[in-house]
Amino acid sequence: MQPIGLTLKNIKENYFTGRTSGELMIVHLCVHCGRISSNRIAGDDNPHVLISLLEESSTVNTETITRLHNLDITLLTQEDRQKVLTALCGYGYQGCWK
User: Fold this and answer.
1) How many domains does the structure of the chain reveal?
2) Alpha-carbon distances, residue 1 vs 18, 28, 29, 33, 65 (angstroms)
């Protein structure tokens, strides 16, 4: 399995703050059979590697993007960097991320 990007699952909006949150997931593609799966991030996953997956998701081919869309999986992009940092460090991520 090769990680190809990140996605959010169970996206919810806080009624009082208007902020959205969700569970950060790693999207994997099997290099042998082409199966796509998403798995929760783990506490020991390297956050720098997770952030680098945002950049790598821009290189995913059109066929895979279509398959992801059919599975209701949307890869996060560099525009979603704040969402990823919030999922990793909380709303005060500016103080913990360099």
Assistant:
1) 1
2) 36, 6, 5, 10, 17
